[in-house]
Design a protein that fits this description.
Helix content of chain B: 10-25%
CATH superfamily of the largest domain in chain B: Nucleic acid-binding proteins
Structural class of chain A: mainly alpha
Strand order of the largest sheet of chain B: 5-6-7-12-11
Radius of gyration of chain B: 24 Å
Organism (chain B): Stephania japonica
CATH architecture of the largest domain in chain B: Beta Barrel
Mean pLDDT of chain A: 83
Family (chain B): Belongs to the eukaryotic RPB7/RPC8 RNA polymerase subunit family.
Oligomer: heterodimer
Number of strands of chain A: 2
Distance between the termini of chain B: 23 Å
Radius of gyration of chain A: 19 Å
GO biological process, one term (chain B): transcription initiation at RNA polymerase III promoter
Protein name (chain B): DNA-directed RNA polymerase subunit
Number of helices of chain B: 4
Strand content of chain A: under 5%
Subcellular location (chain B): Nucleus
Amino acid sequence: MKVIKANAGALTNFEVLDFLRSRGASNPTRVIGSVAPSEFQVYDYLLQSSACNQTRESVNEFLCKCEKFDLAKAEKLNIINIRPSSEVEIDPIIEQCENRMGAEEVQVLVKTVVEVLPPTKPDNTDEDKIIQDQETMEAD
Amino acid sequence: MFFLSLIEHTLRLPPHLLDLPLDEAIKGELEHLFLDKVIPNLGLCISVYDLRSIDGGFIFPGDGASTYTVIIYFKKKFLSNVFKFMLLWQVVCRLLMFRPFVGEVLSGKVDSSDMNGLRLSVGFFKDIYVPVHFLPNPSKFGEDGRWVWMYEGDELSIENEEEIRFRIQSVKYPAIPIEPEKDAKPFAPMIITASIDHDGLGPVAWWV
């Protein structure tokens, strides 16, 4: 084996998930198809991650909208993968966050992330149920 | 976290793959070779992403089943059909690698805790360690086998199986020991050292 190019481009978690889906990993039976068990492990991990509900459009939109922030490519990639929804979560991702960005700028960035990138669990059925249960209990 | 790596590899296709289309057969062989394996300095191979080029090489003298050589010799019509499985193929392909970069923040689960720190998992990869000096300061190891962060009078514990954010400090590819020590841990070809000593890192429950 000869390595021609060790780094031929980075992929976001979403792109990897999309690739595995296209290989047939979303098939519920997991028997048919050419997906290896190790690939299923990656698929399962990504399904739990922020990538599970992202679409090509939402990622592109985020990349357009974060142009105005002075972010490195690796930082954008990391933000898309983690989807930080508060200032404290974004702080470790951005190198020297306090020196490079003002508090307001960070707030705008977090707002952009929350607006553009879909949350991990969009169907809050479980939470809704709990709230409903609580309400009925209170009513009783 | 995931990168593509362009590699060139020479491989021989065994005759039993004769009924498959060439690219499928080669991809299968490559998957067999690389999938779920660590390549030093490239990371853990997740998938064969695509094949960029396939070049037919040559037959090594004495390699392959002789019957096929006869077929090639006499039935030139089937040359392309049979010939390709007799050759060594030089393939250029892109592999999908798991190779987090230093400074990257990942999300995973706590696999286990002991006196030396934490062991973390991202499901498909479990050789991620947080040594004691990368735990938030001050932390102490409780008698119940959990690490606890002493934060302004509060005791914030790190439970097993809890979702945790961590930052990559280093990725190492140790060489295979020639004479392993007697009580050595199982050999890990890729070891990631991570830190949770920063605001926003550690169990997600601490911050959300």
